Amino acid sequence: xSISDITKSTETRMGKSIExxxxxxxxxxxxxxxxxxxxxxxxxYYGSMVPVGQVANVSVVDARTLNVxxxxxxxxxxxxxxxxESDLGLNPVALGDSIRVPMPPLTEERRRDLTKVxxxxxxDSKVAVRNLRREANDALKRxxxxxxxxxxxxxxxxxxxxxxxxxxxxxxDKLVADKEAxxxxx
Length: 186
What we know:
This protein has four helices and six strands. The chain is an alpha+beta fold. The strands form two sheets. The protein has a four-stranded antiparallel β-sheet with strand order 3-4-6-5, covered by helices on one side. It has a two-stranded antiparallel sheet with strand order 1-2. A hairpin with a 2-residue loop joins strand 1 and strand 2. One of its GO terms (cellular component) is cytosol.
Protein backbone atom coordinates (compact mmCIF):
# COMPACT_ATOMS: atom_id res chain seq x y z
CA UNK A 1 0.00 0.00 0.00
CA SER A 2 1.39 3.40 -0.95
CA ILE A 3 0.91 6.88 0.49
CA SER A 4 -1.47 7.84 -2.33
CA ASP A 5 -3.54 4.67 -1.73
CA ILE A 6 -3.84 5.53 1.96
CA THR A 7 -4.89 9.15 1.34
CA LYS A 8 -7.36 8.26 -1.45
CA SER A 9 -8.93 5.48 0.63
CA THR A 10 -9.20 7.74 3.68
CA GLU A 11 -10.73 10.58 1.63
CA THR A 12 -13.28 8.23 0.05
CA ARG A 13 -14.28 6.70 3.37
CA MET A 14 -14.57 10.12 5.06
CA GLY A 15 -16.81 11.21 2.18
CA LYS A 16 -18.98 8.15 2.79
CA SER A 17 -19.28 9.15 6.47
CA ILE A 18 -20.60 12.55 5.36
CA GLU A 19 -23.10 10.92 2.97
CA UNK A 20 -24.25 8.61 5.75
CA UNK A 21 -24.75 11.60 8.05
CA UNK A 22 -26.82 13.36 5.37
CA UNK A 23 -29.04 10.28 5.03
CA UNK A 24 -29.47 10.00 8.80
CA UNK A 25 -30.27 13.71 9.15
CA UNK A 26 -32.83 13.53 6.36
CA UNK A 27 -34.74 10.94 8.39
CA UNK A 28 -35.15 13.35 11.30
CA UNK A 29 -38.55 14.97 10.96
CA UNK A 30 -38.67 18.74 11.00
CA UNK A 31 -42.41 19.35 10.74
CA UNK A 32 -42.32 19.91 6.99
CA UNK A 33 -43.37 17.10 4.70
CA UNK A 34 -40.81 15.44 2.44
CA UNK A 35 -41.13 12.12 0.65
CA UNK A 36 -37.91 10.71 2.13
CA UNK A 37 -39.39 10.63 5.62
CA UNK A 38 -41.10 7.29 4.90
CA UNK A 39 -37.96 5.67 3.44
CA UNK A 40 -37.21 3.59 6.53
CA UNK A 41 -40.84 2.51 7.08
CA UNK A 42 -41.18 -1.10 5.96
CA UNK A 43 -44.41 -2.85 5.01
CA UNK A 44 -45.23 -6.56 4.72
CA TYR A 45 -45.47 -7.29 0.99
CA TYR A 46 -46.40 -10.93 0.36
CA GLY A 47 -44.28 -12.19 3.24
CA SER A 48 -41.24 -9.93 2.90
CA MET A 49 -40.60 -6.57 4.51
CA VAL A 50 -39.98 -3.85 1.90
CA PRO A 51 -39.75 -0.03 2.11
CA VAL A 52 -42.98 1.86 1.44
CA GLY A 53 -41.35 3.45 -1.62
CA GLN A 54 -41.21 0.03 -3.31
CA VAL A 55 -44.95 -0.64 -3.05
CA ALA A 56 -46.36 2.88 -3.40
CA ASN A 57 -45.73 6.33 -4.84
CA VAL A 58 -44.97 8.83 -2.06
CA SER A 59 -45.53 12.48 -3.00
CA VAL A 60 -45.70 15.83 -1.21
CA VAL A 61 -49.14 17.49 -1.44
CA ASP A 62 -48.24 20.63 0.50
CA ALA A 63 -45.81 21.69 3.25
CA ARG A 64 -47.58 19.58 5.87
CA THR A 65 -49.11 16.66 3.93
CA LEU A 66 -47.82 13.56 2.16
CA ASN A 67 -49.84 11.43 -0.24
CA VAL A 68 -49.11 7.70 -0.47
CA UNK A 69 -50.59 6.03 -3.57
CA UNK A 70 -50.22 2.21 -3.38
CA UNK A 71 -49.59 0.46 -6.70
CA UNK A 72 -51.92 -2.36 -5.63
CA UNK A 73 -55.27 -1.55 -4.01
CA UNK A 74 -54.95 -4.32 -1.42
CA UNK A 75 -51.72 -2.74 -0.07
CA UNK A 76 -53.43 0.42 1.29
CA UNK A 77 -54.33 -1.07 4.69
CA UNK A 78 -50.87 -2.65 5.37
CA UNK A 79 -49.13 0.59 4.33
CA UNK A 80 -51.40 2.66 6.59
CA UNK A 81 -50.72 0.26 9.47
CA UNK A 82 -46.95 0.34 8.91
CA UNK A 83 -46.89 4.16 8.90
CA UNK A 84 -49.02 4.34 12.04
CA GLU A 85 -46.82 1.80 13.89
CA SER A 86 -43.53 3.45 12.85
CA ASP A 87 -41.59 5.57 15.34
CA LEU A 88 -42.41 8.75 13.39
CA GLY A 89 -45.54 9.63 15.35
CA LEU A 90 -47.66 10.02 12.22
CA ASN A 91 -51.38 9.34 11.90
CA PRO A 92 -52.23 8.38 8.29
CA VAL A 93 -55.77 8.71 6.93
CA ALA A 94 -57.10 6.38 4.22
CA LEU A 95 -58.97 8.14 1.41
CA GLY A 96 -60.26 5.49 -0.97
CA ASP A 97 -57.22 3.89 -2.56
CA SER A 98 -54.73 6.53 -1.40
CA ILE A 99 -53.42 7.50 2.03
CA ARG A 100 -52.96 11.05 3.32
CA VAL A 101 -50.27 11.56 5.96
CA PRO A 102 -50.61 14.92 7.74
CA MET A 103 -47.45 16.10 9.51
CA PRO A 104 -48.29 17.31 13.02
CA PRO A 105 -46.56 20.51 14.12
CA LEU A 106 -43.61 20.01 16.46
CA THR A 107 -43.77 21.21 20.06
CA GLU A 108 -40.90 23.24 21.50
CA GLU A 109 -39.90 20.32 23.73
CA ARG A 110 -39.89 17.91 20.79
CA ARG A 111 -37.76 20.36 18.79
CA ARG A 112 -35.17 20.42 21.59
CA ASP A 113 -35.17 16.61 21.73
CA LEU A 114 -34.63 16.46 17.97
CA THR A 115 -31.66 18.85 18.18
CA LYS A 116 -30.09 16.48 20.72
CA VAL A 117 -30.58 13.62 18.25
CA UNK A 118 -29.00 15.73 15.49
CA UNK A 119 -25.99 16.55 17.69
CA UNK A 120 -25.62 12.87 18.56
CA UNK A 121 -25.64 11.91 14.85
CA UNK A 122 -23.04 14.59 14.20
CA UNK A 123 -20.84 13.35 17.03
CA ASP A 124 -21.08 9.76 15.74
CA SER A 125 -19.93 10.97 12.32
CA LYS A 126 -17.02 12.90 13.86
CA VAL A 127 -15.96 9.76 15.73
CA ALA A 128 -16.08 7.79 12.46
CA VAL A 129 -13.92 10.42 10.70
CA ARG A 130 -11.42 10.46 13.57
CA ASN A 131 -11.24 6.65 13.51
CA LEU A 132 -10.44 6.82 9.79
CA ARG A 133 -7.67 9.33 10.57
CA ARG A 134 -6.25 6.94 13.19
CA GLU A 135 -6.38 4.01 10.71
CA ALA A 136 -4.54 6.08 8.08
CA ASN A 137 -1.88 7.13 10.59
CA ASP A 138 -1.45 3.51 11.73
CA ALA A 139 -0.96 2.44 8.09
CA LEU A 140 1.65 5.18 7.66
CA LYS A 141 3.47 4.03 10.81
CA ARG A 142 3.58 0.48 9.43
CA UNK A 143 5.08 1.76 6.16
CA UNK A 144 7.64 3.79 8.12
CA UNK A 145 8.51 0.79 10.31
CA UNK A 146 9.00 -1.36 7.20
CA UNK A 147 11.22 1.42 5.80
CA UNK A 148 9.01 1.87 2.71
CA UNK A 149 8.67 5.62 3.35
CA UNK A 150 10.87 8.25 4.97
CA UNK A 151 10.07 10.10 8.19
CA UNK A 152 9.53 13.28 6.14
CA UNK A 153 6.96 11.49 3.95
CA UNK A 154 5.28 10.14 7.07
CA UNK A 155 5.05 13.60 8.67
CA UNK A 156 3.82 15.26 5.44
CA UNK A 157 1.16 12.62 4.87
CA UNK A 158 -0.01 12.80 8.49
CA UNK A 159 -0.44 16.57 7.99
CA UNK A 160 -2.47 15.90 4.81
CA UNK A 161 -4.66 13.39 6.67
CA UNK A 162 -5.13 15.86 9.54
CA UNK A 163 -6.20 18.63 7.11
CA UNK A 164 -8.63 16.17 5.51
CA UNK A 165 -10.01 15.32 8.96
CA UNK A 166 -10.41 19.00 9.85
CA UNK A 167 -12.23 19.64 6.56
CA UNK A 168 -14.72 16.81 7.11
CA UNK A 169 -15.28 17.68 10.79
CA UNK A 170 -16.05 21.28 9.74
CA UNK A 171 -18.50 19.96 7.13
CA UNK A 172 -20.18 17.80 9.79
CA ASP A 173 -20.48 20.83 12.10
CA LYS A 174 -22.08 22.83 9.27
CA LEU A 175 -24.58 20.05 8.45
CA VAL A 176 -25.52 19.72 12.13
CA ALA A 177 -25.91 23.50 12.56
CA ASP A 178 -28.08 23.73 9.41
CA LYS A 179 -30.32 20.87 10.56
CA GLU A 180 -30.67 22.37 14.06
CA ALA A 181 -31.68 25.72 12.55
CA UNK A 182 -34.20 23.93 10.31
CA UNK A 183 -35.70 22.10 13.30
CA UNK A 184 -35.90 25.14 15.56
CA UNK A 185 -37.51 27.31 12.85
CA UNK A 186 -41.23 27.52 13.60
